[in-house]
């Protein structure tokens, strides 16, 4: 196998591994409440990209081993497409993270002075908390001792009778209250899910409406950290993709060897010994 063929075959195996990694991180993004709730297309895009990378890597490996220019050409074209798509997805995700994190911080600063939310994402986040708190308040008219939404069961409904479990960002607020001991979005709010405060004090009937610090800063930081991780991985994956693509194009476009004018082949020692051992034909 030629040197560039070895590199392409190694790159093909690496692409299969990287494709599986992208699929895994797509599954991770799907389970991440903030990323999947803000834009459900991110996990889907990672799944599709990982599958294309794995198939392309397999074709590249087979093409390099079999020295098939057709498979190598397919591998080169697909790798070029994947490389551009990975770069675009990584840069786009970075811009999305920076923009939405800025919107959360900026919108909440506006809320403290004007009482209004103007950005779409902060409005959605605030609406979710309002619905959760509304459902808990309604539940307490029927179950006065309920200290958390979990205790409400079938009574976990808003003023329109809609169940609030499973709405956008519900799992995110539950995670934020449990991990960061916060409540509310832009403004301080009372706990909805009954998790202890920063001092470890359990929620009871006496303190269940005591406001806690708002969650917007923690949510913005979480989104930025997770988005930056996915962005770094995507941009890191683009480097071996580029190298494999260049090696594949090298093999596809390299012309076949031509005999030099006036060249006379000189047999080496092993070849000469082999010819001397042959019987002489008369």
Automatic annotation (TrEMBL):
Transmembrane segments: 6-25, 46-65, 71-97, 228-252
GO terms under cellular component: membrane
Top-level taxon in the UniProt lineage: Eukaryota
Pfam families per UniProt: Tetraspanin
Membrane topology, record value: Multi-pass membrane protein
Subcellular location: Membrane
InterPro entries membership: Tetraspanin/Peripherin
Keywords tagged on the record: Membrane, Transmembrane, Transmembrane helix
Main location, first listed in the record: membrane
Protein name: Tetraspanin
């Amino acid at each position: 196998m030629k040197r560039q063929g070895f590199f392409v075959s190694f790159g093909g195996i690496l692409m299969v591994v990287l494709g599986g990694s992208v699929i895994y991180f797509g599954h991770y993004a799907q389970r991440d409440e903030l990323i999947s709730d803000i834009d459900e297309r991110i996990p889907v895009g990672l799944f599709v990209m990982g599958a294309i990378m794995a198939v392309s890597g397999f074709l590249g490996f087979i093409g390099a081993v079999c020295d098939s220019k057709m498979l190598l050409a397919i591998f080169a074209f697909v790798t070029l497409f994947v490389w551009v798509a990975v770069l675009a997805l990584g840069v786009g995700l970075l811009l999305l993270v920076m923009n939405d994190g800025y919107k959360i911080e900026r919108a909440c600063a506006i809320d403290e002075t004007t009482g209004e939310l103007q950005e779409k994402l902060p409005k959605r986040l605030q609406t979710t908390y309002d619905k959760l708190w509304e459902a808990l308040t309604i539940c307490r008219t029927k179950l006065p001792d309920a200290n958390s939404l979990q205790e409400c069961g079938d009574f976990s409904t808003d003023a329109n009778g809609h169940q609030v479990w499973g709405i956008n960002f519900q799992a995110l607020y539950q995670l934020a209250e449990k991990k960061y001991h916060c409540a509310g979005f832009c403004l301080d709010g009372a706990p909805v899910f009954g998790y202890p405060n920063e001092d470890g004090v359990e929620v009871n009937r006496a303190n269940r409406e005591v406001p806690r610090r708002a969650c917007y800063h923690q949510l913005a930081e979480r989104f930025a950290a997770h988005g930056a991780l996915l962005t770094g991985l995507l941009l890191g994956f683009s480097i071996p993709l580029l190298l494999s693509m260049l090696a594949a194009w090298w093999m596809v476009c390299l012309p076949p060897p031509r005999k030099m004018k006036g060249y006379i082949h000189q047999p080496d020692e092993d070849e000469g010994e082999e010819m001397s051992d042959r019987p002489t034909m008369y």
